[in-house]
Amino acid sequence: MYWLIGSLIIIAMMGVLAVADSMAIPTSSSLMDILNTSILFLSLIIFAIILMVIAQFNVPSAKTSHLSQHTAGLSSRNPSYNTSHKSKLFFRILTHVLVALLAIGLIIGSALQALISHQQAELTEITEPMRVQVLVTIEGISDSVYDVATDSGYRQVAVISDISPLVSALAVEDLDAMTSNFLIDENNSLSNNRLYENNSNNNNGKDGTYRVLLNGYPKNSSKQSSKKNLDNNPFDRLNYLQPGDQLFMSLALAPLATSEQALSNPSGFDSYRWLRGRHIDGVANILTVGTSNVTNTEVSKPAFASSSYLQRFQTYINQGRWQLRQHFYQDWSTQTTAAQQAKAVTLSLLTGDRSLINRDTKDLYQLAGISHLLAISGTHVLFLAIMLAGAAVLLFDRLWPKVYRYVPRWQVRWWVMIAAAFIYALFTGFDVPAARTAWMLFAIGLVRLTLLPVSTMRVLFALAVLMAWLDPYVLWQAGYWLSFIAVALLLKYDDASYTQSAVISETASAHSASVVDTAFKRVWIIGKRVFKLQFWLFITLLPITLLLFGKASLWGLVINLFAIGLFGWVIVPLNLLAGLCYLLSPAIADSIWLLVSATVAKLHELITWLTSLPALSEAWLYTPVNVAILLMVLLSMLPWLLPRGFISRWLAMPPLTLLMMTVYANQQSLTTIPTLYILSTGDPYISAALLQYPVVNNEQSSTTDTHKNNISWLFLSDHRPNAARTMPSNLTANKLSMTLAQQLGSLSVDTLEGIVVQSSSAGLTDTLTTDKTYLASNASASTNASASELLPLTVFQLNQRLPISQYWQAGRSDHWSAFQKAYKVTSQSKDITNISVQRCEQGKTWQLGNGDLSIQALTGWSNIDSPSVWDCTVAIDASLPIRVLKYNAADPLKSIPATAQTLTSSSQPPTHQANMPQARLILNADTHQRIWQMWTLLCPVEPPEQPRTFYNVTWLGHSTSQITAEVINRQTINEMITYDDKMLEATLSLNAAVDTTNMTP
What is the three-class DSSP state of 918? Predict the structure, then answer.
């Protein structure tokens, strides 16, 4: 009953949050006035305590058969006993009814708690984009630092108040004048501020406060500026904002649903739920930053009008975290990247601050399967609590032993551990793992103090329910599930292995053996237990990991064997010791941190070497996980979770077999239907499309494996028009290649027949640049390539990740060989795979051996000295219909059809011909109107009475395309799809209808 009610409570809260988030539910202010979250939380705790007390005193007897016979004899001889027995039966029935009512009340109350929390979040969220001038209060420490050299942006949670609409752009001097007027104004108002009157049409400033995520990223102008001018960048002072600082900024606010952080992420990361879980009301892009803080405490208006002592204490702790980061950040630019990242990981292991860790290091830990080691887990909190408790008991033993007359030694140790755990949890941000450990220490000590017969597993489960009641949005955090499930599995494994180890030790002591044999056996037993524990955790957490993140690293099974011990017994204790020494002597702490950083650096080198082995390069497991797969995993694990001998463990074979068949069928379903996936790139003008076509009796494929069941082509293009001004791309080749490689892996693509870059590159053109230094700087893996070199460099880096047979490049590619050599020099890597380039120009074709699929270039004339006609539009002709899907990173099996505009054509329907392709898919990539003007001049005109050659012609391009209605009619296009889901201008003059369901074959 205990586990059933708790599970139903969590399921009900998750269901309410999912339903409330997916559909519009009217907000009821009266409901929130009647049922406050804090009052409801206390009521749920009281109900739970009453339920546990009733259930504890209503435990049935174990010998029910003997009791029933005895009571039957008494009832036949004594009628009065029969009456008392009926009253007891009535009381028991009443108890069961009361337990059922309390359980139902707990489930309904939990659902109401989740609903009220969601409605409160809806009331405070930002609903529309706006540009404002606000007073910003920094909360906590930033998630990242602003650094132009590494293209790192500033991300900071903050509270904004004194919100006023912004009509014209503000300079830094204007914000400083606002600060001065704000400090002078006795009423803390901007109503008399002349600058505000000039920038606002009315005096309707908002008095509300919002909790937002500030974003400040380096712009291209600042990236290209010299290092001397970087000191004049006002964004540089963002790194020096401490928790609790207040200053004026001009911001561009955006709601979560329409901000870039909440759009479909290429990696499948649900940023909307991540931000909601942190109680973020909106996203704010920083426009201008003031240079003066609101430091006058008498007139400054804090964001928390009723800030408690706990909040002030947490602000002081966050300031200590910030000062410790600044200590690690000293002389940062003078150190090597390896030394920087070793120090960044050391800081993360001490305070949970990951702001200094770059993307490469995070990817390395993800690939190694040890990302969990970067978080502050229960091990960190427990180590510090044990160290301080031991030191406190030692002091009491030496100086004040009389204390033990009044307080037992274990209680002294317990109170010190609790205080240390909660303070350190606050110091690390009070994330779920740290908070869980602190509350677990408190609960277990309370159980021992009150002598309650409650197991540790029940305490853990009750704590999971309590944390969900306190904050229902914690159910959207991956750390919540991984933390509690991992600890539960550890407790279950420890219970199962304790008896086994006791038997082994008794057997070893019974037989006389030498010291060497005994030591060898103990080492063997310990190593075997560690491997079994790691294998147990990896297998049991694998479905949860795949469900939460969409992928899992197979390296984790191997690297965790030594990494957990190294971190748990060497790095973390030394790091915590250095943190304690920092309070007394920073010089001693720096010496210890130097040793820790050196150890972490050597570990990075070892992991990099292991993960770069060619034989073990395929480390990612991509498998979509749904409820059915989770159910089969649970059924497979059930015989192993139950006590030994309860049911046969051979019963795990049927669900395990069904699970393997389901996973294999899911992987095969991605490649059995001709499909073009529109992949996510993170840039609205950069497009990526993957063609997967099943192969039947192919004899002339140029792939390395002639027995492959499908052919895959990747098409890349940059659709920024030459004649219009657009926002520059913030993508890097590393980021784009990594994003594409992950999406290809989730679609079971390990080999590409070819890549077609449909946009020309100025950096590869002999007529536009000949500077080798320029090539080397743009080919560097750590440098942002310009827009023209982004896609070629992405192809080169993709070729290092998976085999590619052909590479077509639009325009001229005279410098491609020099480009590859420059990349080899700057990357300083010996294992670099080269790839030859072919020109993608009009008339170039590729055909499958059986004739079912062909790819040909419709445009691209690189022999003309004008880049405006170099872009390569490609036509895909297939004997089977090709469906066009929008790639769903969270679950590729649920990728939805792309929105299509159906055009009415005056041409005759196609007549049946033998071996005639049924479908044509045109991938457009023009950035100038001359492309289609050239095509109109060079391509022959077909008479309108001639029947169409294809059953279906689909056009896929960008809404900025320069294609005309005449070209659309001449190509007999009957379906139009755009990458950005916007209306194409050329179709406005045609009879078009939007159809979102007609894309599947």
Answer: coil
